[in-house]
Amino acid sequence: MANLKITLVKSTNKLKKQQAATVEALGLRKIGAFVEQKDNPQIRGMIKKVEHVLAVEEI
């Protein structure tokens, strides 16, 4: 299975509480921060909920 590089590109200030919690659960705190996560259905679902504030690329 591949890995995903997930980068926070927009602020979480105006997000709903659940969306902000999803971003934090992915391990992202500041704009420009990135994490590597395994590509699985659970992570893909989290990304789908907040894809408008993230940049995702496969590694």
Q: How is this structure best described in words?
A:
This protein has one domain: Ribosomal protein L30/L7 (Ribosomal Protein L30, Chain: A). The N and C termini lie close together (10 Å). A three-stranded antiparallel beta sheet has the order 2-1-3, with no helix packed on it. The mean pLDDT is 95. It has two helices and three strands, in the order βαβαβ. It is α+β, with helices and mostly antiparallel strands and 59 residues long.
Quick rundown:
With 59 residues, the protein is of the alpha+beta class.
Helix content: 25-40%
Beta-strand proportion: 25-35%
Rounded radius of gyration (Å)? 10 Å
Question: What class, by secondary structure content?
Answer: alpha+beta
CATH superfamily: Ribosomal protein L30/L7
Q: What low-confidence regions span 5 or more consecutive residues with pLDDT below 50? A: none
User: Which strand order spans the largest sheet, edge to edge or round the barrel?
Assistant: 2-1-3
Q: Order of SSEs, N→C? A: EHEHE
Write the layout of secondary structure elements.
Layout lengths: L2 E6 L8 H9 L8 E5 L2 H9 L4 E5 L1
Defining traits:
59 residues, 3-stranded antiparallel beta sheet, 2 helices
